[in-house]
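Hi all, posting the design record for the shared folder.

TITLE: backbone redesign
STEP: 1 of 1
STRUCTURE INPUT:
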């Protein structure tokens, strides 16, 4: 069995593109020795790579610190990040604090807008 890069096989013109025909064609290429195998590290190296990637995510190397927080209000049907471009800004944090405090009226939340915020109160209330 050989692991083959699909991009090499997909770029060949002039063949009928069906799954059965592709399987037969790939099998024929393999039996003639025309397929080059891709590099596949052993299981221990794969486990080590996964561990290093997970550690980088936990440390914050792959994503910003605000990104996971910005998704959580969406799960609660609160779309602060759509109304305000900077979720961690003055307006965004004021709205989040008010929501946590129990405020649910959009017009009242929009009044918490900082004067330097680009969005108008009406635009924030609509979101």
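Okay, here is what came back for every position:
SEQUENCE:
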């Amino acid at each position: 069995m050989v692991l083959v890069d699909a991009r090499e096989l997909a770029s060949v013109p002039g063949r009928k593109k069906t799954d059965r025909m592709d399987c037969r064609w790939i099998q024929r290429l393999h039996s003639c020795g025309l397929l080059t195998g891709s590099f596949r590290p052993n299981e221990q190296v794969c486990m080590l790579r996964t561990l290093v990637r997970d550690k980088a995510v936990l440390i914050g190397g792959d994503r910003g610190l605000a990104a996971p927080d910005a998704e959580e209000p969406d799960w609660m049907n609160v779309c602060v990040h759509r109304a305000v471009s900077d979720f961690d800004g003055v307006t965004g944090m004021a709205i989040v604090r008010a929501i946590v405090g129990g405020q649910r009226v959009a017009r009242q939340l929009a009044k918490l807008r900082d004067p330097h915020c680009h969005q108008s109160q009406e635009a924030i209330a609509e979101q």
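COMMENT: The helical segments are 6-10, 19-31, 43-59, 66-75, 80-83, 90-100, 106-110, 121-126.
Let me know if anyone wants the other runs.
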